[in-house]
Amino acid sequence: MNTNTTEHTGTSRLPNPQQLVPALGEVGAALFKATGNGAIPRATIGLVQLRAGQLVGSAYLAILHAGNLRGAGGSEERIAAVATWRDAPYFTEAERAALALVEAVLQPAPHGERVPDELYTRVAEHYDDAALATLAMAIGQVNFFVPLALIGKPLPGRSPAEQWTPVPTR
């Protein structure tokens, strides 16, 4: 039984998932390749993934994707304003459509569909079919890792080698 908690040890709750499930590296690489096909600007993917991390309440994912945006030259204003994108002046209409889409996908809809026809039409005004599919995969990419982030609780802001406890040797 694993009783490791971040409160007690200052480490993640799970040992390194890639060591536990080696195929995880291949899956992660395939998802990165799928979203990096050039159909959507990397900055847009980063904004969507940062917003997804915020929406699911993962400090690790929010800090990871904010750092990725910073590393790609994203401004502090844009990064800080992602949570309030609706009234922030830093985003293009295409980015706003992508941010609205990630929110619709990840938040329960009180009435009707999560992604109503009106939102789809708005997003489709900015993205062709390949870009829309890539945008869906970008949302799926970050969501693939949500369970590991919430259950394993890797440490925000740490390198991959530091964020997970090592797999115990037997």
From TrEMBL:
Q: Give the superkingdom in one word.
A: Bacteria
Question: Where does the Carboxymuconolactone decarboxylase-like domain lie?
Answer: 26-103
Where, if anywhere, are coiled coils annotated?
Answer: none
- State what protein this is by name: Carboxymuconolactone decarboxylase family protein
Species per Swiss-Prot/TrEMBL record: Nocardia carnea
